[in-house]
Amino acid sequence: MLVQFYNVSKVYSNGVKALDDISLKIDKGEFIFLMGASGAGKSTLVKLLFREELPTRGQIFLASRSVVRMKRAEVPKLRRNVGIVFQDFKLLENKTVSENVAFAMEVVGANTRDIKQRVPEVIKMVSLQGKEDSFPGELSGGEQQRVGIARALVNRPVLLIADEPTGNLDFETSTGIMELLYDINRKGTTVIMATHARELVKVAHKRIITLEKGKIASDNADGESIA
Amino acid sequence: MRAGSIFYFFREAFKSLSRNKLLSFATISTISVCILIIGIAVLITLNTGNFITQLESDVEIVAYMDKDLTSESVTDIGEQIKEIQGVKAINFVPRDDALKKLQKNIGGKEYDLKATLGKNPLPDTYEIKASNPHDVASIAGEVGKISGVYKVNYGKGFVEKLFNATRWIRIISLVFIALLVLGAIFLIATTIRLAIFARRKEIYLMKLIGSTDWFIRWPFIIEGILLGVLGAVVSIAILLAAYSSLLNNIETMSFLPLITSSSILRNFYLSLLAAGGVLGVLGTFISINRFLDV
Fold it and tell me: Which of B2, B201, B212 sits opposite A76 (nearest CB)?
């Protein structure tokens, strides 16, 4: 079991109840779509996984370690096991493609030799060969997201979290990004993708967890599917 | 910490300095103005302290001997005075010398003081210096107890007032400097916060990728030291030029005993340099923590 949520609730300091008594389990190697309207709690659930937020109640385990009880000093270690892909890419505009990817290794203190070997590997994995020295501003949206995915993968995370990764992309580009994510999943990385792109989800035949007002409205883990 | 990381910290610090030229300039200016003001305040305090110490060390005790003592017992009293704790030096003034001095000061060539008075009315005296001028009252008391000492004088009343005043001057100037330093820390922290704010997205990203707080802090702290030291160098250059020209122009006014000791001044300037570095680090440390809370 890679991820476990036990009766998790999250109420923000302004009184907004984002998650209400969520329990769920995610196995190693799964590909999961997290669906729901804006404000249903998708982003909150995702943020709990890498401890950008703490739950108000309940327990969360990642690879059998409590994310909630973890000391502040242990959080970096947790995050190195989780790759994050953002809707708005969050690339550093003044760094090239290579530098953006290498950045993720530098800031966790990887040595130069490993960085030089690993960065071209991931750039190849996301099919961006030839764009290594381009700056994000010179790339299309789809290419920028591929850089974002390469950066998330470079430290070999066990879990890849993608929060609306296709939210800023057109359908065709999105399909390409989805193919890349499926490919990553096939190679063994667990993927959780929050999205409201129904048309991408429908054709995927993957597990779909739908949130509604902070509760799990449906989960097709047992073969049930959404309408 | 690995050598590679240290290299990375320095590289990032220098990159950030050259990338944010305007903010670096603003920070250096802020720091150098703060240090300049603090430096002037410290310099004034040092000089005032110097002046005060000089005033205080001018305080001395004068012990008048009974007039009918033999010269042996006068010498003996001198030995006893030397043994009193806190006495730094004593100076014996024989009555004849005292009269000559008096003659010189108030008399004229036209009349002989001794002849006028018929005999020397002055007693033998000891002038006593205390190691710590604040002890004069108690030393004077001790001296007064020695038999054969006719009278002890140390400017009672005036000395207490002087010491009271100098104590307050010292306290007030220390409080003033402490307030200046506090103000400088907040001003510098605010300026550095602007520089860090410009890179908050990068810091957020680093945190989410799994960077430790110290890994993120180090380049900023190195940058803070560099900015602080650079700011201090600017203000030291200004102070150095201003103070030496002041010394050159004021030489004739000997009543103002300015500090000229090169070792004191060198320590002062080195302290300012260190203060620049410390202010830069403190400012960075105060500013960066709120951005690390992700």
Answer: B212
